[in-house]
Amino acid sequence: MKTRNGMTLVAGGAGFIGSHLCRALLEEGERVVCLDNLQTSRESNLLDLEGYDGFSFVQADITEPLPREITHEAGNLTRIYNLACAASPALYQADPEHTMLTSVLGTTQLLRLAERSGARFLLASTSEVYGDPEVHPQPERYRGSVSCTGPRACYDEGKRAAETLAFDFARSGRAAVRVARIFNTYGPHMRMDDGRVVSNMICQALSGEPLTIYGDGSQTRSFCYVSDTVDGLRRLMEHPTLDPQPVNIGNPEELSIRELVNALASVAGQPLELRHKDLPVDDPRRRRPDISRAREMLGWQPTTPLREGLARTLAWFAGEVKGNHRAPAQQMPARVAVGSAMGEL
Question: What is the number of other CB atoms lying within 10 angstroms of the CB of residue 95?
């Protein structure tokens, strides 16, 4: 993709997908500002980015008024990616009020920044807007089956409201928006304690513990390697659409949790012991994206085979576990500027 003049803001850029997105943009020579409150992000993700020219970090919470370091640069912004929100059930349910406000109030503030700056805006929405789907696979036209009162509602309904805001801004001509509905994504930079199935299983396998299976393991998911997800987000951001529509970004290959265990055992080269627990409330039974729109509109589909992605992820987690045993984690200061993308810092 071509390098552009101007600056890109990545809200949630210290998180799992956000840090990979920052790296991909920086490797193309772009100037990137990462905005993150570090509530659920891995601070070491920022350390991986500090060597790039044109990278800056601002610690702030998008539920609060945006800091001057961001608003002062509005005239230089050309792209705004909003990935700011806890994304795993364990983390977003830990502070449900903040999760909802991040999606609604935070998205509003970033959309207003896009309106002021003229920057193109991409919302990282989620497959959770489909809830426990009654249509399979899930096309973008499907309106979902979501509980608005359950423990997952703070995230599911928050993202649905964020989409509403984005499309209202688009309809009124206030901002050029893109909306990506991201399905299960995995890879390096995930938190060990985020509660997602791939990270859970890998960490348990590395520690010699039995792998936790919720229910009987027949529920299905579709797993997309993080570099493929980032490629889809970038293609969507740069697509010259005048009729914004949500676009599913995910892997259409569906497998059960039991099949995921078998794939991980094959990569690990050893049998894995299992332990079963009850299914969480409102846990979806099936999840698989229809990516016809992404294929036709963006020329995009995932290319990383599951076993290859699992091998990379397992190797990365093994390095993390080994490193954690050697030395304490490095700490980032409360606010830090890396590189020289923002002279204000």
Answer: 15
CA distance 71 to 183: 31
Residue 289 is classified by DSSP as B
Tokens encoding 161: 């409201």
CB proximity list for 211: less than 8 A, separation 6 or greater: 200, 201, 204, 205, 261, 264, 272, 273, 274, 275
As a 3-state breakdown, the chain gives helix, strand, coil percent values, each rounded to 5, of 40, 15, 45
Choose, from 155, 186, 214, 225, the residue flagged as catalytic: 155
pLDDT at 82: 98
Question: Quick check: is 155 catalytic?
Answer: yes
Residue 83 contacts residue 124 (beta carbons within 8 Å): yes
DSSP β-bridge partners for residue 178: 122
DSSP 143-166: --B--SSSTTHHHHHHHHHHHHHH
What is d(CA 85, CA 316) in angstroms, rounded to the nearest whole number?
A: 24
- Return d(Cα 110, Cα 244) in angstroms, integer: 17
The C-alpha angle 244, 104, 147, rounded to 5 degrees, equals 90
Alpha-carbon Rg for the chain in angstroms: 19
Contact criterion met (CB below 8 Å) for 35 and 85 = no
Q: Are strands 255-256 and 220-221 parallel, antiparallel or unpaired?
A: antiparallel
Residue 225, beta-bridge partner list: 186
Tell how strand 224-225 and strand 220-221 pair up: unpaired
The whole-angstrom separation of Cα 233 and Cα 143 is 22
Q: Is 143 helix (H, G, I), strand (E, B) or coil?
A: coil
The amino acid present at 267, given as its one-letter code, is V
Q: Residue 68: what pLDDT?
A: 96
pLDDT value at residue 97: 97
pTM of the predicted structure, to 2 decimals:
0.91
Q: Return the SS3 of 109.
A: helix
- The Cα 40–Cα 50 span in angstroms is 19
- State the Cα angle at 299 between 293 and 302, rounded to 5°: 90
Q: What's residue 258's pLDDT? A: 94
